[in-house]
Amino acid sequence: MNKTLIALTVAAASISSVATAAEVYSDETSSLAIGGRFEARGVMKENDQGSNKVTDKSRVRINVAGKTDITDSLYGIGFWEGEYTSSGSSDDKGDVNNRHLNAGIGGDFGKVVYGKTDGSLGMITDFTDIMAYHGNEAGNKVAAADRAGDNLAYTGSFDLGGNNLTLKANYVFDDGKGSEGLDDGYSVGAIYALDMGLAFGAGYGEQDTATNSAFNGETQKQTFGAISYTVGDFYFAGLYQDARHTEENSDKQRGYEFAASYTMDKTVFIATYNFREDRSNDVDLNDSIAIDATHYFNSNFRTYASYKFNLLDSDKVGKANASDEFVLGARYDF
């Protein structure tokens, strides 16, 4: 893997648990691996009444990945991941959802899967979405470009003389349910990573909407651009997005995020700045500075602390929406 992408993955506090998955079955042609995480998270912020409230945001994820060789150059794959989240209340009733449920084929050309899987813009927002909890406020994505069901997706990675090109494209079909007034949509993205530590990313997504929805049949459109640079133990990245009709009563939006990380032995320090505005109504939607520190005891266990300085005006958005936020967490990957 290109060292730019390695640094991005190491710096992120949300390294996929697939990387530590344990193989539980294998024969000459097939294998099955199980992985996941247990993550305890306590979030403290001020409510509209001016009191500090601690909310339990703990969660557990379990994933199962299968692969079987069909020919020397073709293989079949399947992947499922579910998540159970704490309710944060004494009734102990949390939520369960399927994050991923897909299958497909792969080879030298890349891989094609269908089901519930990631869209194409997530790899672009990953340039700056590297914090343990906060960040990515400027990286909101239309439904077809995010994780979605009824999703046909292609991913390919190609070595170009020491540099690396990653391509991704997906199409989400209209399920006929009129979910949130959204119809068909698609997204495409590309990352070009140079071996000297510089990487560029760009992506575009569209989502059709129903005429009887809050979006009045307008097509949601979104463009992302990103750049990163890794030098030694430092990582720097920037993200920019321009969007149309991605929220109710908002024709134009613009946002950007800047991220920096420093790795010192087993501890990673990260800072980000996020800003997103509704240009149609001249309203700031997000404006914050966040810092966190994550200590990796080993490849399976980490703890972290994260603080967000909220810069929004409480007179305009309310005290709770403009409140700072502090998070403590511990995570075990398997």
Describe this structure in words.
This protein is mainly beta and 334 residues long. The protein is built from 3 helices and 18 strands. A 16-stranded antiparallel barrel has the order 2-4-5-6-7-8-9-10-11-12-13-14-15-16-17-18. Strand 13 and strand 14 form a beta hairpin. The two termini are 22 Å apart. The model is unreliable at 1-17 (pLDDT under 50).
Low-confidence stretches: 1-17
Q: Tell me how many strands there are.
A: 18
Strand order of the largest sheet: 2-4-5-6-7-8-9-10-11-12-13-14-15-16-17-18
Mean pLDDT: 90
In the CATH scheme, the class would be Mainly Beta
Shape: globular
Supply the number of structural domains: 1
> What is the string of helix and strand elements?
HEEEEEEEHEEEEEEEEEEHE
Estimate the helix proportion, in percent.
under 10%
Shape-level CATH architecture: Beta Barrel
Tally of alpha and pi helices: 3
Class inferred from helices and paired strands: mainly beta
Determine the CATH superfamily. Porin
CATH T-level topology: Porin
Strand percent estimate? over 45%
End-to-end separation in angstroms reads 22 Å
Question: How is the biggest beta sheet arranged?
Answer: 16 strands, antiparallel, barrel
